[in-house]
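P.,

For your records, the input lines for the assembly:
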Amino acid sequence: MSGNAQSEQFEADFTPGSGSVGIVTPQDLLCAQPPNRLKLSCGKELGPITVRYETVGTLSPKKDNAILVIHALTGDAHVAGRHAPEDRKTGWWDIIVGPGKPLDTDRYFIICSNCLGGCMGTTGPASTNPSTGKPYALEFPVVTVEDMVAVQRMVVDHLGIDRLLAVIGGSLAGMQALAWPILYPQRVANAIVVAAAARLSPQAIAWNAIGRNAILSDPNWRNGDYYGQALPATGLAIARMIGHITYLSEVKMRQKFGRELRNGDAFKYDFISEFEVESYLDYQASRFVERFDANSYLYLTKAMDYFDLAAQYGSVRDAVARAAARFLVFSFTTDWLFPSWQSREMVNAMISTGRQVTYANLPTDHGHDAFLLDFPELHRIIRGFLSEAYRREVKA
Amino acid sequence: MSGNAQSEQFEADFTPGSGSVGIVTPQDLLCAQPPNRLKLSCGKELGPITVRYETVGTLSPKKDNAILVIHALTGDAHVAGRHAPEDRKTGWWDIIVGPGKPLDTDRYFIICSNCLGGCMGTTGPASTNPSTGKPYALEFPVVTVEDMVAVQRMVVDHLGIDRLLAVIGGSLAGMQALAWPILYPQRVANAIVVAAAARLSPQAIAWNAIGRNAILSDPNWRNGDYYGQALPATGLAIARMIGHITYLSEVKMRQKFGRELRNGDAFKYDFISEFEVESYLDYQASRFVERFDANSYLYLTKAMDYFDLAAQYGSVRDAVARAAARFLVFSFTTDWLFPSWQSREMVNAMISTGRQVTYANLPTDHGHDAFLLDFPELHRIIRGFLSEAYRREVKA
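Structure tokens returned:
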């Protein structure tokens, strides 16, 4: 994706910052405490809710330089920097968040919180149900994208921020970034929606459903009550493998794996993993089941399936008409999980209702995953969009 | 797919026959009997082998009107007609095989056999291992596309046919139809290769691998020794669901299911199947596990993964250069399991080695499954190609 003449030219204009935000300390917010529990889309109430979040950069005295970064399906609040000096890995979007980077922490105050229903510090099905003293498991209510956004708004309230300079997210987080200015038009000035959709396609619902089926049919799942026992790791592994293929493009899989065999060039005539692509899936799945809760996978994929601006507001057009934010929308040419036609659908609705919108369908071989990678064109446009927003909203 | 002016015009020229071949009786051939066991690609020998096959139409006195129809992954020898008058369903390709139909049984003698490793009458992992008196299970050797073709050749030999007028197949069967004239150049005059490839793509390998993983990790699978006990139905169901999505195009899923809910328009906020597409997958999977053996699924998908003309012969070009047959190759614009570029790869290799080849990349919304459906353009071209072959090879 990098290295062609055009991107080199842009890089000369916008030298990517190499700085790190350094050591970041996660914080927990306790909110939605009874009797002020959160009223969920399903009609139930939930609370108290703990929200794990991290911030980097400095909130301006006027509190007008805050950007909410939202993580995708299996992410967490740890968006940039390290928790400890010895950490080998940085936060999940360190490539774009830091001093001099597109989400420039010398200028912006960055907030990222783990989503409701997740398993990385925010209340979810693995959390203790205060009314039983045991993990919620399936007693946890089914939550929606709108519920996730409502909890993020509590973090923003807690930080005393009236209006976000921007929200940004890709995939499931792109749905949330899209929902934000529709739910809270006065609370966000700009929304960057990456590789997302106003509603999930039936094919994507099907992949989610098969992943859930694999978890639900794992004997260790035990109707969700597996905490403290053997985990439904095989079901979750299958779900993750399916996910990984949908995140990659067919052409990238050819480039990355081809038909290479892991051990030499002779077939083993057995059912062990032989092709490189099989080893890749095995490895990704085994890493994932160590860090992610299977029940959270059920809840978060269900929230994706349910998200549907058209069903909720009458039409995508009626939905985006509620927003006052300026939009920046990205799709990727080889993304087949959230195909470009879905971004065009929302962009056309935005245009027809007079919203301010910039749209880029970026050429890449990387498929859906492109938004997490070193992607100079993507980063350059985000940088420029935010700089203009900053000039307009903060410097003015 | 039907109903436009162009296809109506062609239908006027080539009225599809509505005739049925009537009642068909399956036959079993016992072959590869010791000491003449079949030498397999893996180096092992297998025998005796029972082959379930059916024939329709009449073999000409010169035995020059025979067409071998090959079934895809989960098919069987029952290609056309009914086994009994009360059968509700006809054979799997009845739409194209019968009196007056493109594979006109008034003219051609049609042969279809269940493939080696299958579970529909031909020897496979569920068959009794004569050396133990128990099902082979994983003692069954891993077989290849080439081994399947070798067993089909035994049927052709048994019927006294020196040279097939044509072989035809789609998907895994298209691989076999492609392998036939390369393995036995003098034994087949024409090969019709539908929605297939000279080698499976890494993405398609990955889908197969995940399906196998689901089966292998089903506790009921018991290292393959589940016969007479509870079946690994949940693993096989997951595999089948994955398969079904790959057989459909994204656009067809939109047309077919949209985001419709099964029961009314209100979300249930539960993990039951709610969307129509989920019900479809549940239904397809539950039907499939009743009729198909999970071990056969392992063996047949492995054969798909292994098929690689380039690896076996040096290049696709070197492979097809061995063939003397005329080729008819089809791909479908929305087939993402066997994308058109794979067909173009083989067609270009055929052209560059001077093979006779006709290629059609047919527009359709139906994805990979198109070859099994009512597809007038496909059927018209097959009819024309076979009529010419008949004039050239039989009438001459």
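Two observations worth noting. Chain B has one domain: 5-200+309-395. The domain at 5-200+309-395 of chain B is CATH 3.40.50.1820 (Rossmann fold).

Regards
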